[in-house]
Amino acid sequence: MTQASGASGKTAPPAPTGRSATKYLVIVGAATYFFWISLYLYVPVLPLQARELGANLEMVGLVIAAYAIGQILLRIPVGVGSDIIGRKPFAVAALVLAALGALWLGLAPNPWSLFAARTLTGIAAAGWVAISVLFASYYSPDKSSRAMAVLMSVNTLSLVTATFVGGIVAEYFGNLSTFYGASGMGFAGAMLLLIAPEPRIAKTARYSLSTLVNVIKTPLLLRVAAIAITLQFVTFGVNFGFLPIHAENLGASKSEIGYITTAGLVASVVGTALSAWVSSRWGPTAAIIIAAAATLVSLVMMTITTDLLTLTGLQAFNGFGRGMMNTVLISMALASAPVATRATAMGSYQALYAIGMLLGPAASGPIAAAFGIEMVFWAAAAATVFGGALALVKPLPRRQ
User: Among 153, 236, 275, 347, which has the highest number of CB atoms less than 10 A from its own CB?
Assistant: First the structure.
């Protein structure tokens, strides 16, 4: 499509090649790195900050769940808009909103203000649709799996940095420092992204409502999104939700909570790196089952361990599974649509899996309050079993 043709009729610059393409891949990759740091630098202490502001366990769950609201509502519109007028404007806006949301989190005087600020960061996260497809547009269409593997590696490395540094920063400078640091990273990423031109994409058909409907009802897209819902349920209900509180109850300091979270993300890099090899050798269904098994075992064992070192190892095992599953699913979602509508496909996929981001912490709060935090891990284990079963119903295609 004549990128960004839309209502303006302007033509985007041709796709960069050679060293130029590499240069802009590095720039967009660096902006992506800053984007995720701006959204996750404070994640290890966000539940603790909510508690310090007076939130009960149900409210902690709502604050964490607020991150999903904007993503559920806006990821499809962002995807559609990105396919029609271009990906870059939405990508830049996402970084600016991430910066403003982090600043608001730092200034929030009570749990409900924290909830509103976290909702704004969720709106910013909806821009991941545009950023991910913008990055992939620097690769040829037949290399979408490689593009996603590289991008997910950047994503995971930035989360490793954010959670590792965030815990230490909070330990020495207080919780608020993580929010203000995240805000600075968001603004820096936006400035970086302004440098990179958006490649032109050949338009194959006029965009219409039927285009959106046809993308959303793609059977493969719907199935991988359903599996991803269970993955996000675990990630936001446990790993970014009640695991920090569980670890604190076991005696962990803020920096130790950061280390535990980081262990899962470091292992996630390994899972991401191995995902393409496992998928090509045994197929994506096998990769998802391996990932689900690793996640399931870790969740069950977390309910009985009282040792922080063991908890860290289990979190690493959990992260390995999540990294592998996440990369396989996002690669299949991207490949489920033609190049001209890939932002729509990615937006639809991410909007659907954001249901898990909402349900995980929203359900985990009442579960923890009524039955104890350990029961949150059992609920996540049940979701993992369901996700694995969805992959087994019908073998997923090896390559689109």
Answer: 347
